Amino acid sequence: MTTKPEVTGFGTEQVRRARYAVAAVFAVHGAVTGSFATRVPWIQDHASVSAGQLGLALAFPAIGASLTMPLAGRVSHRFGARTALRGLLALWTLALILPALAPNLVTLCAALFVYGATAGMSDVAMNALGVEVENRLDKSIMSGLHGMWSVGALLGSAAGTVAAHLGTDARLHHTIAALVLTALALAACRNVLDLRSEPDEEPPPRFTLPPRSALVIGAVGFCAVFAEGASMDWSAVYLRDIMGSSAGLAAASTTAFALMMAIARIAGDRVVDRFGAVRTVRVSGLLATVGGLLVVLAPGPAAALCGFGLLGLGVAVVVPLAFAAAGRSGDNPSRAIAGVATITYTSGLIAPSAVGSLAEATSLLASFGLVTVLAFGLVLGAGVLRASDRKVAAGGVPAPAPTGSPTGG
């Protein structure tokens, strides 16, 4: 019987603990998002903004994230991966308090910019550490980590739904949630890998264009996130307006999509380990394409509901694998991950409005025709994720992504 050798700088048990720690970090990150989403109506009323003004304000998280994500690598270089994640994640959990305090549109936009900036930087830091752990375990974990994010989002939204049902002031709700989640985040960060840059290593630039590899990988992530954003925001409207379904069945389409995504992400690592990232994404793309066609050609609400479920199943593992591939491409994984994250955040920003604009110009049916085409793009572009399958021959131990040197602990 042979045992896997210890990876330089970290013992096997320490890496396993780091895996659970990063999973907890992902869950905390998701819980913040879920907590915020459920109280948007309260925040809108408190800030006295119209639907159009709220739409403008809700663009600011993505703007803040896109502008600040490249800074995450520099923060990690300066303070070390563990300290950087601890600080960025605490800023993100505490930023949950800000939107509920905003009394008008200007302050709401500013609060959501900070909210998005801290979300994006902590997102890059935790995904980079997730890739590091995956490298050292020599098996896929990124899909499961993103599944934990979905679980956290579901838990956060469930707590937020209860708070809203009880009529709790969102300022009180989000303050309590932020303090609890900050405590959980700091506790989880104690066991993540503590990676530090070499003393003579040049710090990454503050702002830089993502490497070409990240652009190619990000294009695949763009297709998946576009389909995800369109389905999450428009599936209920589609069933109501195109299929003529009841309000309850229309709402169930969003639940079906989100549930299939969560299940697929949690189970995805075993599939990736067995079949590899490229084949997994090709099959996922086919499932998403079939789902899109079923939505567009559905004779009734039940078929469309199944189509949205297949779309959720098909796009679920793509973004985790895109982050994993970015973390193994080029000389600067943090920069590549930031590039992929920026592209996917941008896709999530434009998808709902693009679907709405196309629907207004043509029809919602045509909008989901575009979603189906982009889903098929996953089949065509799956090969760029081949870096997720790369192994190192020496001893079967994966090469750590060169983001710094381990300091132990």
Automatic annotation (TrEMBL):
Q: Does the keyword Transmembrane apply?
A: yes
Task: Quote the Pfam families the UniProt record gives.
Answer: MFS_1 (PF07690)
Record bears the keyword Transmembrane helix: yes
- Signal peptide span: none
The record's subcellular locations are: Cell membrane
Highest taxon of the lineage: Bacteria
Ranges for domain Major facilitator superfamily (MFS) profile come to 18-390
Enumerate the UniProt keywords alphabetically. Membrane, Transmembrane, Transmembrane helix
List, alphabetically, the InterPro entries matched: MFS, MFS_dom, MFS_trans_sf, MFS_Transporter
Question: Which sequence ranges form a coiled-coil region, renumbered to this chain?
Answer: none
Principal place where this protein is found? membrane
What membrane topology is given?
Multi-pass membrane protein
Q: Which residues cross the membrane?
A: 20-42, 54-72, 84-106, 145-166, 214-236, 242-264, 276-296, 302-324, 336-358, 364-385
PANTHER family, per this entry? BYPASS OF STOP CODON PROTEIN 6, INNER MEMBRANE PROTEIN YBJJ
UniProt-recorded name of the protein: MFS family permease
The opening ranks of the lineage are: Bacteria, Bacillati, Actinomycetota, Actinomycetes, Kitasatosporales
